[in-house]
Amino acid sequence: MRSNVTLSVGLRYDWQNYFHDNNDVAPRASIAFSPTESGRTVIRSGIGIDPGYPIPGVALAAEPASIVRFGQDIVILSWLQYGVSAERQLRKGTSASEHHVHGDGRAPSVPVA
Fold first, then answer.
1. How far apart are CA 13 and CA 27, in angstroms?
2. In terms of Cα–Cα distance, which of 97, 99, 72 is closest to 84?
3. What is the reported pLDDT for 112?
4. Which of 44, 48, 79, 109 shows a CA-CA span of 20 to 30 A to 10?
């Protein structure tokens, strides 16, 4: 890699105790690039997958507050999030930035048992 480019990759482990879908590893990747020698401008981009969340609006069964029970047919989404940003240092301690982030939930092809 070049001195004005940084590449990062990693895995996040996210254990859920309410449902066991064995999909607990979340890959991540990002890149940062400074197109000028001064390093005052940086362009960043990244992508990550979250292992899963229940679809919003799924009602829980009526249980005491200390018990959570999901329906047998619950669908757990994988969530893909990606974005790009640009940041420019205007003077010491001051910068301007623009961020664009998008997320996309995807249901698995097989229901969680």
1. 9
2. 99
3. 47
4. 109
Model pTM?
0.66
Residue 74: C-alpha distances to residues 25, 54, 59, 79, 81 (Å): 20, 7, 10, 16, 22
Summary count for the chain: helices (H), strands (E): 0, 5
The single residue listed with the structure tokens 């047919």 is 73
Q: Which two tokens stand for residue 46?
A: 């990244």
Q: What is the identity of the amino acid at 92?
A: K
- The residue among 113, 105, 1 whose CA lies nearest residue 53 is 105
Q: Is the separation of the CB atoms in 96 and 88 below 8 Å? A: yes
In 3D space, the residue among 28, 26, 4 whose CA is nearest the CA of residue 14 turns out to be 26
Helix boundaries (H) for the chain:
none
